[in-house]
Design a protein that fits this description.
single chain, Beta-Lactamase
């Protein structure tokens, strides 16, 4: 297991930072079988490299999402099915980019610092089993570059789920 990553230069474009980071994320988790340990390291690496306000996962548990590993300010612990950006991404099984959280009907404000958000579903056996949630303290901070790159991160997470021991 890699215990460090080479952080892309902050002067690099966001796309370049993702391109430099994604192979390292694969390497970071390739020899570890524990899902929680891997998710914790993935969230830390992404927050550090990309400068997000908040990044984490929520696990699907019955009819709600339950907070998993994250980096950033304190977060909402539980989110109901179909509620807020995370609950809707889960319900609809699609990525949602929110340029201004104050304009999103039903947005759940876990932190008043959050201005924009992107949420991506994570699939296992064609079923949403968690969501990846990323918040920024800047308006309109996420775009197609983030959707594509973070989609690759959810792919890494799906691979981890496929090889993780049953709990």
């Amino acid at each position: 297991m890699a215990e460090s990553i080479d952080l892309p230069l902050s002067t690099a474009s966001r796309k370049e930072r993702y391109e430099l980071l994604l192979p390292q994320l694969h390497h970071l988790v390739e020899d570890e079988s524990d899902l929680i340990a891997n998710l914790g390291n993935l969230m830390a690496a992404l927050k550090e490299a990309m400068g997000f306000l908040w990044i984490g996962v929520y696990f699907v548990r019955a009819e709600e999402l339950v907070l998993g590993p994250f980096q950033g300010p304190l977060a909402c612990t539980r989110i109901a099915y179909g509620k807020g950006v995370c609950g809707i991404a889960w319900k609809e099984g699609r990525t949602i980019v929110v340029p201004d959280v104050d304009q999103f009907p039903g947005h759940i404000a876990c932190s008043s610092l959050s201005k924009s958000e992107i949420v991506l579903p994570v699939f296992s056996n064609d079923k949403v089993v968690m969501v990846l949630d990323v918040d920024s303290d800047r308006l309109a901070d996420f775009d197609e570059t983030d959707a594509v790159a973070l989609g690759k991160v959810t792919g890494i997470i799906s691979e981890l789920l496929a090889k993780a021991p049953a709990r």
